[in-house]
Amino acid sequence: MSQEIFRKDVLEGLSKAGQKTLPSKYFYDKKGDELFVQIMNMQEYYLTDAEMDIFKNKTLELIEALCIDKKQKFELIELGPGDGSKSIHLLRYLLSENYDFQYFPVDISQNALEGLVNTLGKKLPELEVKPQQGDYFEKLKQLHKTTIPKILMVLGSNIGNLRDQQAADFIYQLGENLTPGDKILLGVDLIKKKEIILPAYNDPNGITAAFNLNLLERINRELDADFDVKHFKHIAIYEEEEGIAKSYLKSLIVQTVKVGSRQFHFDKGETIHTEISRKYNDLIMEQILTDTDIRIHKKIMDSQGYFADYILIRNG
Fold first, then answer.
1. Contact 172/98 with Cβ under 8 angstroms?
2. What pTM does this model have?
3. What's the CATH code of the domain at 114?
């Protein structure tokens, strides 16, 4: 992502009438990455453990739901695989049962892919790994040129950072790069009580607050801005009826902030909206899929019912 695009997005977001915004995709600089690793390791951040429970303890159920034919070669494609700590359980089982497949991890980060390939080389040396560095849809378009059946994995409830229409558009684009009968394994966080969800986005140790506030620090570092971080506070809200966790940065005083040559006024109590995290149920999933050619085949939940991996199939 170029500095000019970063600058443009920040200036546009802070210029909005009514509700200032900043895109959540800019959380992830070096410090942001480190803080997010800490978040994923928090006791309050149940999402990682919940999906891990599915991959580790319900591996056979996943494979049965994917309806994989042992006699037919297929491609297992994972978007944003991270360190592969979840998918490795599925990969190991497929190898042990002699399924005929290739694994295609797709990521924008070459460093992330190199780390993953190194890890898998040590733990699963017999696995055929075909790393794909670049934009998700560009790589999917290239992979779509083959007629080999495909299973596409989008884990970690990453889709929850999109508004419902954006999520529908995203899934539609995924389907455009699949052949009828191909499948998507989509991980989503489920609607739950506020007492469970809110601590994951506003933990008592302040890690999520530091993660959110680091966005202002990054703007200071990279865009010649002068946000005084101590004059902003991290706020997280969640209403079960809406099913969306939202994060904000609240101005604690009346202040003016400079970003390059531009100035932005903040009233006391005024907020910058930085992130959403959509929670799902079957009805919401059905609504999102309404105008796509994708249908729900199976839903597999963790032992506590916090998280679900949906098996989706592209219609013929």
1. no
2. 0.90
3. 3.40.50.150
